[in-house]
Design brief:
The complex is a heterodimer of chains A (186) and B (618). Chain A is mainly α. Chain A contains 9 helices and no strands. In chain B, the strands form 3 sheets. In chain B, strands 1, 2, 4, 10, 11, 14, 16, 17 and 18 form a 9-stranded mixed sheet that branches. In chain B, strands 5-6-7-13-12-9-8 form a 7-stranded antiparallel sheet, covered by helices on one side. Classes of the chains: A mainly alpha (186), B alpha+beta (618). Chain B: Keywords: Membrane, Transmembrane, Transmembrane helix.
């Protein structure tokens, strides 16, 4: 799979930019989802996804295979674009995703999502952005640790440890009764 | 109610699945839940089975990391399950996907049109090759070309710059001398090689005829052009000039001398021409031209008081004012009074220190490498205009500061005897640098050639005017003796044209410079006289060529008015108060009278010159 990405990227770098379309097809939903999980707002997620792919296309020539996979690279672009989104919109300083938004700020979050996440939100909020990102990628995006490690620029074992700590943190914070209640309510 | 019950059952069943699977059991039957259709039960089963596997995987990972978590299994399962169930619906919109795809493809098309793939890898040629498959407008191609060319010379290091820097060779123009064997350049003169300097003297003749002559280096074009308003006047009766040696005895011991040949490295010119091949013009298919070289490019700054620069890939850089962006208020004039109102006055000219400071500032700002140039000196030829009422003195729009070129510790001279170097023009009206010229590539090869050692031969050549022989008119009524001081060794720019291959080469050769001690100061004679210095080459081959082939050039004028539209200031004239005695003799038999020697005032005898031009061995 990654070999395939590597060849496609090399072809793009040789001038066969049409092949970027293959990468687009492969990653557009993953990137959009990743952005959405962090942004929690459809229109904003779409805008950011546009920026991510345009940036990736614009900078494809500077991509170096020796420094990681294309997937890791485009996720990094996505993460940075999300941070830029919050910085430029000046909603709040120093936030990296919607989980860091104050509770009273619902302007940029889809209402239905807020309802859906209401039960776990305050616990996920307690996690660091990186821990949340781990959970997003591991649980919601079903990514293997190897890919997560590439994207986060960490070793696979470090990601596993971080993930277990995040889950352990949730276990401590999330009362069992609440889970039962959640289950019963759904 | 039915849903709530189903979910409750899901959880129960799920927990059992997990337990069974952990124990190695396999579920072979699809459970049917109370109150559900068979189809719904199947879907739920599949979903739960999938979730089960997911949860199993998560748990497995967690236990590998922290075995103690096993005791919290029930909680963990709920947490993970809850997280999975809370997974937001991302609302991925296929319409959005298609919309973005269209945008991406448009961007791809745009990038290919602009021929830009910002890469740090050496893939530029292939991208350029692709351009031949497409037809793009000249404007886009030109814009890309300009962008690609300009960027390497800007301060910012962006991707394109890095890209070009890696793909294309740097244009190294700094001074470098490579030593070759003796005679490596072949013939320097004679058959196959023609002294281009002699040919140039055809022009020199006309220069001389109008009083410009040697020492013109560093004079801005404006100064020359504006000389049309300099007063003309009548040239006197014909005067002959005769050089006499009045210096000390000297000897030359070196049998061989070093000749430098300036290289014009075409590596960069060839590489950068690939960029031009990438421009697809709908008028001509440029890709059909083979083995191309990019000779030069010109770039304009589109701003007030902007500059233009011309980059020669083999020669160097010239910077000049972008005419359209500099104000020219006199252009609106339609009468003499108006033009006169814009004429500069002597008081408008800044002091030399200020002019040099302006030039130095420009050099610093634009990062011009001055490691092989001497200190700047204002070229104030216009001040030396003699015999003209002060009100008629033309104050040039621009004044030059010349930084003499230094090679091997010696200043380099032009063929006419003036210093060669890098010039900075300063616009007097606006107190701004308006041009920088002769920022030349200085990559040389060096080879030894036989030298001239016979002093008598050298002096005989000098007495005839050296490389600019004087013409003796038999009908002249008077002769002026010009005394030459003890010579200095200098380096001289010398152009050699090879008729066989049609190429001209720029050489740097050693030569002797004889300062003329008693430059005529009389206005009329001054116009007719040219040289401040007499130059004699020390390369035997070139020396012999001059002795054999050089035709003396007339420096006398018939007694008729000179077209004032062509008069140029005698930039090499002197203002010294030295007197020149002359003796009028009958036409048939001219005689001469010795001219008293005055303290030399030429540049060549100034301390700076002495530092770099050592006197010859005694």
């Amino acid at each position: 799979m990654e070999q395939s990405d590597e060849i496609i990227v090399k072809n793009c770098q040789k001038g066969e930019l049409e092949q970027f379309g293959i990468l687009y097809e492969k990653y557009v939903k993953k990137i959009y989802s990743f952005v959405y999980f962090k942004i929690q707002h459809k229109e904003s997620a779409e805008d950011i996804t546009v920026k991510v792919f345009i940036k990736a296309l614009d900078k494809i020539g500077s991509f170096k295979h020796s420094e990681g996979t294309f997937q890791a690279w485009i996720y990094k672009i996505a993460r940075n674009t999300i941070i830029d989104h919050y910085r430029t919109s000046k909603i709040e300083a120093n936030i990296e995703d919607a989980w860091d938004l104050p509770d009273n700020n619902n302007l940029e979050r889809d209402l239905d999502l807020k309802v859906r996440l209401e039960a776990v939100e305050k616990y996920l909020k307690k996690l660091s952005p990186e821990q949340r990102e781990l959970i997003i990628m591991r649980v919601w995006q079903d990514m293997p640790y190897r890919e997560i490690a590439e994207i986060l620029g960490k070793s696979e074992s470090a990601c596993k440890v971080a993930y277990s700590r995040a889950i352990g943190q949730l276990r401590k914070d999330l009362p069992l009764t609440l889970f039962i209640a959640l289950c019963l309510l759904q | 109610m039915e849903n709530a019950l189903c979910i409750f059952l899901e959880i129960t069943v799920l927990n059992r699945f997990i337990t069974y699977n952990r124990l190695g059991y396999f579920i072979t039957k699809i459970p049917a839940y109370a109150g559900m259709t068979k189809e719904k039960s199947i879907n739920l089963y599949i979903n739960k089975k999938h979730m089960n596997q997911e949860i199993q995987n998560f748990l497995s990972d967690l236990y590998k990391i922290d075995g103690d978590l096993v005791k919290y299994e029930k909680e963990l399962i709920k947490i993970i399950e809850n997280l999975i169930q809370s997974k937001p619906d991302v609302k991925f919109d296929d319409a959005f996907k298609e919309r973005l795809k269209t945008e991406i493809m448009a961007k791809i098309d745009e990038l290919k049109k602009q021929n830009i793939v910002k890469t740090e890898k050496a893939n530029v040629p292939s991208i350029f090759d692709n351009l031949f498959l497409n037809r793009f407008s000249f404007a886009i191609g030109g814009a890309v070309f300009v962008a690609l060319i300009m960027l390497p010379f800007l301060m910012d290091k962006n991707n394109v710059t890095d890209n070009l820097a890696k793909k294309f060779p740097a244009i190294n123009l700094s001074q470098k001398i490579s030593k070759l064997d003796k005679g490596a350049f072949g013939k320097l003169s004679g058959e196959g090689a023609v002294d281009a300097n002699i040919s140039a003297k055809g022009n020199a003749t006309s220069e001389r005829a109008y009083g410009l002559g040697g020492g013109s280096a560093g004079i801005s074009m404006d100064m020359t052009a504006k000389s049309v308003i300099a007063p003309g006047g009548y040239f006197p009766g014909m005067t002959n000039y005769e050089y006499v040696y009045a210096g000390e005895e000297f000897t030359i011991t070196e049998n061989e001398v070093e000749v430098l040949r300036r290289l014009k490295d075409k590596t960069a010119a060839k590489s950068y021409s690939d960029i031009v091949k990438g421009i697809n013009i709908d008028l001509v298919n440029l890709s059909k031209f083979n083995d191309t070289e990019l000779i030069n490019i010109s770039i304009n700054e589109d701003r007030e008081f902007g500059y233009s620069y011309s980059l020669s890939f083999t020669e160097g850089v010239s910077i000049y004012s972008n005419w359209e962006k500099w104000p020219h208020p006199e252009q609106s004039c339609r009468d003499e009074a108006c033009y006169t109102s814009f004429r500069l006055k002597e008081g408008d000219v800044p002091a030399d220190e200020e002019l040099i400071a302006l030039a130095d500032g420009f050099i610093k700002e634009y990062g011009i490498d001055m490691s092989h140039y001497g200190a700047g000196k204002v070229q104030d030829f216009w001040r030396q205009y003699t015999g003209v009422p002060e009100s008629d003195i033309y104050i040039p729009e621009e004044v030059s500061v010349l930084y003499p070129l230094i090679i091997n510790g010696k200043e380099v001279y032009e063929n006419g005897g003036s210093k060669s170097g890098l010039g900075i023009n300063i616009n007097i009206r606006y107190k701004k640098v308006s041009a920088a010229y002769s920022i030349i590539a200085q990559n040389y090869e060096s080879s030894n050639y036989d030298g001239v050692t016979n002093i008598d031969d050298i002096l005989n050549s000098a007495k005839k005017g050296g490389m600019t022989p004087i013409y003796r008119n038999e009908i002249s009524s008077e002769t002026v003796k010009l005394e030459m001081d003890t010579p200095l060794t200098i380096l001289l720019k010398y152009y050699s044209y090879n008729q066989d291959n049609g190429k001209s080469e720029e050489l740097i050769i050693p030569a002797l410079l004889f300062p003329v001690k008693n430059i005529p100061t009389d206005a009329n004679r001054n116009i007719g006289y040219i040289q401040q210095n007499v130059i004699v080459p020390l390369v035997k081959e070139i020396f012999d060529q001059y002795q054999k082939e050089q035709v003396p050039q007339p420096i006398l004028f018939e007694g008729k008015p000179v077209d004032t539209g062509e008069i140029a200031p005698a930039d090499d004239t002197q203002t010294d108060a030295g007197t020149v005695d002359t003796l009028t003799v009958p036409e048939e038999k001219p005689t001469t009278t010795d001219v008293p020697a005055e303290t030399p005032t030429s540049e060549a005898t100034e301390p700076a010159v002495i530092e770099n031009s050592a006197p010859v061995a005694r």
